[in-house]
Amino acid sequence: KRLKIEVKETPKLSNYKYSQVPYSKVCSIFQEIESTSSRLSIIKICSDFFTEIVGEDPQNLIPTTYLFINKLGPDYEPGMELGLGEGLLMKTISESCGKSLAQVKNRYKEMGDLGQIAMEARNVQPTMFKPKPLTVGEVFVNLRAIANAQGKDSQTKKIKLIKRMLTACQGVEAKFLIRSLESKLRIGLAEKTVLISLSKALLKHERGEGEPSDEAVTMAEERIRDAFCQVPNYEIVINVCLQYGISQLQNHCKLRPGIPLKPMLAKPTKAITEVLDRFHGQVFVSEYKYDGERAQVHLLPDGTMRIYSRNGENMTERYPEIDIRDFLVDTSSTHSLIIDCEAVAWDKVNNKILPFQVLSTRKRKDVEAKDIKVRVCLFAFDLLCHNGEPLINQTLRERQDTLQRVTKPVDDEFRYATRLITSNTEELQHFLDQSVKDCCEGLMVKMVDGQESHYEPSKRSRNWLKLKKDYLNGVGDSLDLCVLGAYYGRGKRTGTYGGFLLGCYNQDTGEYETCCKIGTGFSEELLQQLYEKLKPTATDGPMAFYVFDSSAQPDVWFEPTLLFEVLAADLSLSPIYKAGSSHYDKGISLRFPRFLRIREDKPVEEATSSEQVVDLYEAQAHLS
Ligand code: ATP
Question: Which residue ranges does the record assign to the ATP-dependent DNA ligase family profile domain (predicted)?
Answer without folding.
Answer: 369-506
